[in-house]
Amino acid sequence: MSPGWPGAWERLGVPPEELEEVSGEREVLASLPRMKRKKMYVLEPIVKMVLKGNTSNDNTSFLDSEFRYTLFPVFYSIVFILGLTANSYVLFVLHRLREAQTMNEIRIYMTNLTVADLLFVCALPFWIDYFLRRGDWKYSDILCRVIGTFFYINNYCSILFLTAISVNRYWAVTCPLDAASSNCWRRGALISTIIWVLTLSFSMEYLVKPGVNKDQANVSRCFEGYHEDNEDSKRFLAITHLVIVTSFFLVFFIVVACNLLIARALLIQSPSQALGSVSAKPRGVKRQALQMLCVVVVVFIVCFLPHHLVQYPWTLAVLQIQEGWGSTGWNDTTRCWLNDAHQITLMLMGLNCLLDPVVYCFATRRFRLYIKDHLKRVGKGRHYSDTIATHISMTSQGLHNEPGAS
């Protein structure tokens, strides 16, 4: 007899001499007619109720993907080293450009995006240790909540700040005079504040609710699985994820639309319009602006789109809502396939902290010019000095009206 059944029968008040050796749901149900012959009719609905509860627990068992315990530590170690180096250097460059007063709204978005990336990178050592221990969390529940929240903050701050950069570039290309005459610094600070408030507000739930839970093998899982036991809580969680996924696709549509309109405006620009720019190299400016558009769209398609395509079906597979809205009836093979796909998309989302610095290089010519000059000096063995920032400031004055210059 399986370990779970004696306790259930004892709770039902079945005398030991009436207890039959059964090992599963089918055998228990098969024994009900014999129980009826012994005048135990009242037990049939109760037994079925107990069995239904036991089956529900089996269906909501923890879904796992063995490959992640080998792949994730290696992948996240690479992301940690490269991401920490790249984003720290980006902050250094942005700081020097701020001193030279050569960047405004775009610099604000880039700085905030870099901070969000560094939050994620700083949490990676804990995730590396977690997967090396085969998904067994050995730290406090509060720390689990914090590093799990960093993951969501990074991803959704990245999505929103990349959207802000796309809208800003669209405005600079289609309405250059309005963009140049407006208070860019104040607008950038306001939009950045709104993005952080929204992201932190939606992430607050993850800081309040328990982050660590035990699975059937008594393994402490961090930010994996759900604590909701009743159907209403599961259904509410499914609706929440549906809203998040739908919101992402609305933002994704805005990003694609802005970048397509920017590309259209650049490609149909007449030679006289291009030559009317202060720049002596309009073709190069146009090419760099188009490259920036491609990089932003690639980041969305590679890092964020796969996750949000899989997220909602995976949520339903994990919750296993038994009846009504949200119920699926998927078998174990489908659920395992969805979980494997979900794990891969989580890994792809981690790439955004490496690709964001590439966006910066194409988003502003001053950023590229600074890095090029700095690396050239380092390559020649010359020490960095404030004259670089001064040189960039003077050079950038002739680039102010270019589409890729801000």
UniProtKB/TrEMBL annotation:
GO terms for biological process: chemotaxis. This is Platelet-activating factor receptor. It is found in: Cell membrane. PROSITE patterns: G_PROTEIN_RECEP_F1_1, G_PROTEIN_RECEP_F1_2. GO terms for molecular function: G protein-coupled purinergic nucleotide receptor activity; platelet activating factor receptor activity. Belongs to the G-protein coupled receptor 1 family. One of its GO terms (cellular component) is plasma membrane. Residues 86-360 form the G-protein coupled receptors family 1 profile domain. It is a multi-pass membrane protein. Keywords: Cell membrane, Chemotaxis, Disulfide bond, G-protein coupled receptor, Glycoprotein, Membrane, Receptor, Transducer, Transmembrane, Transmembrane helix. Coiled coil: none annotated. Interacts with ARRB1. The chain crosses the membrane at residues 74-94, 106-127, 147-167, 188-208, 236-262, 289-309, 344-363. The keyword RNA-binding does not apply. The keyword Membrane applies.
